[in-house]
Every structure is written in C-alpha cells, then in structure tokens.
Amino acid sequence: MEITEIMKTDNTLLDKMLSEENLGLALAQVRRNRGACGIDGMEVSDLKDYLDENLDEIKESIRKRTYKPQPVKRVEIPKPDGGVRKLGVPTVLDRFVQQAIAQVLIPIYEPKFSDNSFGFRPNRCCEMAIIKALEYMNDGFQWVVDIDLEKFFDTVNHDKLISLVMKDVKSGEIVSLIRKFLVSGIMVDKEYKESIIGTPQGGNLSPLLSNIILNELDKELEARGLRFTRYADDCIILVGSSKRTDRVMANISKYIENKLGLKVNMTKSKVSKPNDIKYLGFGFYYDEFHRQWKAKPHQVSINKLKDKLKKLTKRSWSVSWEYRCTKLRQLIIGWVNYYRIGQFKMICQKLDRWIRFRIRMYLWKKWKTNNNRERQLRKLGAYQWQAKTWSNTRKSYARCASTFLLSVITNGLLNRKGLPSLTDQYQLKHISV
Asked: Edge to edge, what strands does the sheet with 234-239 contain?
C-alpha cells in the first residue's frame, strides 16, 4: 500500500510539472525574463517554435529520465570591490524545463520556509528584509552579527542539497532531473569543466535550491531563539548584548561549515553596531530626535549611483536629449523605488544639483562655437551684451556651469525640458518607516 501511494504521488507531481498549463506558464515566464542565449545559440524568441515541434519528445525524455541538460555558459561580471561574480547561463530550453520544475516545487516549499527569509520568494522583497531588521534594532537588539558566506553558489554540496530535496519531493524523475542540472557542467571559453559542487548562479532553479539549503540555517537560528533576517545568502543576526555576539558568531559559523558544508569568509564576517554595516545596499543610523534606528542608502550605493549618473551625463556621449533624459529617468526611478523606505531627501537634493551642473557643462560644450553660444544665450533670455561677453569667455566648462549659466539654464527650464529629478521622485514614492 505504501509503494502504491508513493507511485501515485510521483505520477501526480510529474504530471503536474508536464501539464499543458504549467508548461505554458513556464514558457511565458522565460519569454518575460528574456536573457542571453546559452551554448547552443538558441534565442528566447526561437523557443516557442522549437517547442511546437519537439515538446512531446522532451516530455517523453523527462518521463524516461533520458533528458540531458547542456552545460551552462560561464559569464563573469566584475565586482565593484574587485574580483568577479560567476554567472551560469543555461540554454533557453534548459531554462524552460527548470522553470517548469520550480513552479511545481515552490508551493511545496513556501509553507516550510521561514518568515524571516525574503529572497527569491513570491510577494517578498529586499524592502521587507530591511523593515524586519529595523524592527529588531528598535526592539533593543542593537548588535549585528554579519556572517559572510564565501562564494555560496559555487560551494553548495550536491549530495547535501539532493538529500534535502528528497525529503519533500517524492518524484524520482524530478529529483533525477535536478541532479542532472547540478552536474551538467560549465563551458568556459569553449572548454568543458565538470560541476562537482555548486549551483550555477543564473539558472531558474538556483534561487529555489539556495533557499532549500539555507532554510536549514533559518531553522537552526530559530531553534536557538535568535533574531535574524535573510535575503538569499545575505544574512544578519541581531542580538541584544555585545557579550553574546562572539559566541553567536563562533557557533553559527561552525554550524554553517560542519552541517551545511558551506564556507564562511572570516575576513568579511564581523560583529558591529547597525551604523557600521551595509546590508542589501542600505546603511543604518540612529535618529536622536525620534529615538529609533532608520535606514538610508549606504555610501557605497550612493557612489555606485554617481558612477552611473556620470556616464549618462558625460559631455562626450553623443545621443539625443530625449534619449539621455529617458535613460536618466529609468535609473532614477529604479534607484529611488528600491531605497524608498530609507531617509535620503538631502542626498537627492545634492545629487540633483550635481546632475544639473553636469548637464549645463554638456550643453555649453554642445553649443560649441562662440556664435552658436551667443545665439543660444539670446534665445534663453540673456541680454545682447551678456550673450556677447559670455559666449567669448575662456573660462572652463565647470566655471561656466557654476556661474552665468545658472541664470539662463535654470532649474525650471531643465524640468520643463524633461530632465528628471531625484527629489521629485523621492517625494512621490517615499514611504516613512
């Protein structure tokens, strides 16, 4: 009777994965995600036509356990602090199959995951992780144990992960398929390398698999009565006294390495007060007036934004005004929306002044000749003698942008011409914590 029930469970889950409805949703999601092609060169736009011809054969190979994923294409993304982040780009077909698996496994695992886990889960986001951290800080847990997992996606133990999956997934075909994806290998400059450990960061299954193994850490933290918040492999533990921090750091690091088989980067892991950490791009500060901890964009995040704004406002970028404003607007809206729970109005005002300063330099260079500059200045309302004098100046771009151009290329004019404002977006989207 037990064998019959297991077989029924197997068939039900596999049938659900291979159902027309689930595969249709998987196709739609892969097309929405877009992304680069894998080692076979198939583009996302080609996937539907390929499935129309081969879907029955693919489904049959999955049922018979003969489906063979292709190696992922290794892509290295430089990190701001040095080093590279290794991403794996599966083929479009493999992304489709992974997405189909994920869609049937997520309902199984969601009820099992911790309420303090916020990464790569339905209806959860970074904002919630920051709010939870602030909640603990303001409840008196003002010491932070920041444990950094070294190259998490590259060090996941396959056997440990599969054993965890088998506890809840009773379909042998699906478990077998997951293992095949884990060991499918990596193509680096047309050279094949085995993937003995790790789960490629970039596949549709990787986020779910990372949460499955790190849920073990969540359960351990909860069993010890610790307050924590985790987003993927970024986890901070908040404790109430400095005496307890060293013990928590030592015990949890030991658990991570001995029980989960992961590595803790002891050079980056640290114990500190909230105002000395960077978590998910946020920093924290104590508001003396309201007597509570609040969040703001970390200085590192602000510097990254400035680097991007600098590229979009550089004088040598030969694009139309409309295109430049569109790219600036996209960057500004995305950045402010991400950090909207933080307090950063003054930062926005300062950056707006800096952007307008750079735009004035760009326009002054664009006008190029003395005659054209005089003509443009007259159009903007300068007196004839002013336009004549200013257009013949030998002052630097920066000096011109910070002096007489302020009176003709006004903030109001730039707003009317479509230049976006961080401050306006902040006031529109800001939500008080």
From this structure: 227-231, 234-239, 143-148, 270-272
